[in-house]
Write a structure and sequence with these properties.
The chain is an all-alpha fold and 191 residues long. It has one domain (2-190): Up-down Bundle (Vanadium-containing Chloroperoxidase, domain 1), CATH 1.20.144. The protein contains nine helices and no strands. The longest helix is centred in the N-terminal third of the chain and has 25 residues, at 47-71. It is elongated. The model has no long low-confidence stretch (mean pLDDT 91).
């Protein structure tokens, strides 16, 4: 079933406009997403939310990477013939294992964080973007659909855990407050 769905969605190189859109989406779904969420939160004075977001992002990236190497699943473009990839975006660039999708786990974690912490409409927009990020990874031939699904579930679970800590764990709240209050002092010393 995974291969059938993969073959239906892996269309890289068949439409130049869609290829460009998928490359843009997959690129924005990488680390660039940090700038679009963390920086506006910080500049609006939402320091604790920024801390929670960055913590969520780091935990998601680390846990996803650990699972990738524990499972060690090959990417579809490494094991299947006739996989459509684009130059510079195939298995020759993606060096880590396939399962789960790091792009999907991070994008969905961000979307879930926004939906849980802020406005539902913003969460819906972020969720649509996260779905597109996951689709882009299959479209480009570097992930199985089940990699994307597993990454999405991991992202949701971790966002829920961070939000639970934010709302119900006084020790976490105190440590976060202490760290957030130290940041301006660190920035002044660094400057």
């Amino acid at each position: 079933m995974d291969e059938i769905l993969f073959r239906a969605l892996n269309l890289a190189g068949t439409n130049g406009v869609v290829d460009a859109a998928m490359l843009l989406i997959t690129t924005l779904g990488a680390e660039y997403i940090l700038v679009f969420v963390a920086l506006p939160l910080w500049l609006r004075g939402r320091r604790e939310a920024t801390f929670d977001f960055l913590l969520l992002y780091v935990i998601t990236a680390l846990l996803t990477t650990a699972i990738k190497y524990a499972v060690d699943r090959p990417r579809p473009c490494d094991v299947l013939i006739n996989v459509h990839t684009l130059p510079g975006y195939g298995c020759n660039v993606e060096r880590d294992p396939s399962f789960p999708s790091g792009h999907a786990s991070r994008a969905v974690a961000v979307a879930a964080f926004i939906a849980l912490r802020f406005d539902r409409r913003a969460g819906m927009a972020a969720s649509v973007f996260a779905v597109l990020v996951g689709l882009s990874r299959v479209y480009l031939g570097v992930h199985w659909p089940s990699d994307v699904l597993a990454g999405a579930l991991l992202g949701i679970g971790l966002a829920l855990a961070v939000e639970l800590a934010n709302r119900r764990l006084p020790l976490y709240q105190r440590v976060r407050k202490w760290i957030v209050e130290l940041i301006p002092h660190w920035l002044r010393r660094a400057a």
